[in-house]
Amino acid sequence: MTKYNCVVVGAGPGGSAFSKIAVENGLKVLMLERARNPGEKNTSGSTIWGNIARKIHPDFPADAPIERRVDGGRLYFVPEGKDWEKGGYSLVGFSHPSKEISDPFNVYRNVFDKWWAEQSVAAGAELKTSTLVTGVVRDANGKIIGVIDEKGEKYEADIVIGADGVLSIIGRMAGLRPMWGSHENCLCCKIDWELDEKLIDERFGSSIEHDDGDIGVLLEIYFAQPMAGNAGYFWIFPDRGSLALGLGIIMNDLIRLEHNIWWYMWNSINHPIVKPKLKGGKPRSYIAHSIPLTNPVGPNGTLFKSYADNIMLIGDAAGFVCPIDGAGWCGAVSAGKIAAEIATKALEKGDTSAEFFQRYQRKWIESDVGKNLKMGKEMADWLTHESGGINVLADQFTRGLASLMEHGTSHEEVGSSSINRTIKYAQEWMALSKPMRMLLGPYLQLFTSLMR
Ligand SMILES: Cc1cc2nc3c(=O)[nH]c(=O)nc-3n(C[C@H](O)[C@H](O)[C@H](O)COP(=O)(O)OP(=O)(O)OC[C@H]3O[C@@H](n4cnc5c(N)ncnc54)[C@H](O)[C@@H]3O)c2cc1C
């Protein structure tokens, strides 16, 4: 049996990011993936960030399979019980501050994850696909020294990386975490909506032409009415010949709610503001998958260790998804890089103990991964409890904007002459709440650029 420095379970965004940096640092790495190709089993929105990707691939996007560049987006606050046709909703635009801070792209994850993993293989990692890991291998003292697949084949390593997503068999077998509870697990569903590229450009184009001649797109996010007033949001993320339509609802809420998750999807698709934008298209595929929406650094989240003797967990396996927007790609990739650097140091020192790996947890908590989790959880708690809920918030926001603008809050009105007053109002409104200020502040200060 070949012994590896690191066996990585899962060739998703986190596992491949770890492997690329680890092999560049001289480690012998094997990635085990249950799918026939990395990405085949992934479901995602699918916005990813170039500034984070460049931590792993400095020349990104170079030859990466990108669908669209994202120049910004529109947030629709549509309160329940209001007549949206009479201006009973508000629309806020946002753009991205700079490529260093936020450089989003839309991708097809089943194509993109394959490419992402291939880069790690090109750098020297081994990849074994169609391999479902079913357990861990322990030494006489009970320490984990490898993993075993469904055919009984064993893979030994100094370090095992659990990059195996939300259900993480590695995390659970190592005793590091339970299954996430229904209050910290979000069910997401997605429809790939086929639509002519020209129509996509007309309806979602940013009109910004990039260096390669490509026109960027705007994301759309809808709160309240399309979701029947429930927490969460409905999104439209444009690709080249299709739109990713999606939404997520916390499992606890789904248990309590009258309808199943697809009802909310069709309620959103048929909403009068959304429907015309989808006209001429049709569904191509349906998928659903859950994401952890917890805060592994507590309080109120499932407090756990992301490491043990010879083990580190990264990405969804460790719960690194921002609880306010459900984005987990950045957390998986950034944590993959941090873990690869710690693994390299551990092997240099010949110490892969839990004590040594404490520094992994310290590092990710101090990094953007930990900051996002903490801030996201704070904002999500505020939104679902203290604010009175998303519907109340959408209503307050819309009424506030309407009174400032004297005659309604249509896209054009918000975007043109009243823009400075809108920003002033939004800033005053956000001053009421620290979490909300942190969420929207940087965007609102910049939304003039797209709406003028
Ligand atoms: C509908 C939806 C939309 C989303 N949209 C976005 C978005 O737009 N932007 C964003 O940032 N995030 C989004 N997310 C979240 C994002 O997809 C995840 O946070 C991200 O993929 C986590 O990466 P990961 O590498 O940790 O895990 P994963 O992407 O889940 O990868 C885990 C890999 O491990 C493999 N695996 C699992 N178990 C085993 C096993 N036992 N043996 C071998 N292999 C195994 C899987 O096949 C998979 O390839 C979305 C999620 C959903 C469900």
Write up what this structure looks like:
The protein has about 450 residues and is an alpha+beta fold. It has 2 domains: about 5-60 and about 105-180 and about 295-365, 3-Layer(bba) Sandwich (FAD/NAD(P)-binding domain), CATH 3.50.50; about 70-105 and about 185-295 and about 380-450, 2-Layer Sandwich (D-Amino Acid Oxidase, Chain A, domain 2). The protein has 16 helices and 18 strands. The chain has helices at about 15-25, 50-55, 110-125, 170-175, 195-205, 250-255, 260-270, 275-280, 330-350, 355-365, 370-385, 390-405, 410-415, 420-430, 435-445, 450, and strands at about 5-10, 30, 45-50, 70-80, 90-95, 105, 125-130, 135-140, 145-150, 155-160, 185-195, 205-210, 215-225, 235-240, 240-250, 280-290, 305-310, 310-315. Residues about 405-425 and about 430-450 have low confidence and may be disordered. The chain binds flavin-adenine dinucleotide.
- Uncertain ranges: 406-423, 432-452
Instruction: Report the helical percentage.
Output: 25-40%
Bound molecules: flavin-adenine dinucleotide
Largest beta-sheet details: 10 strands, mixed
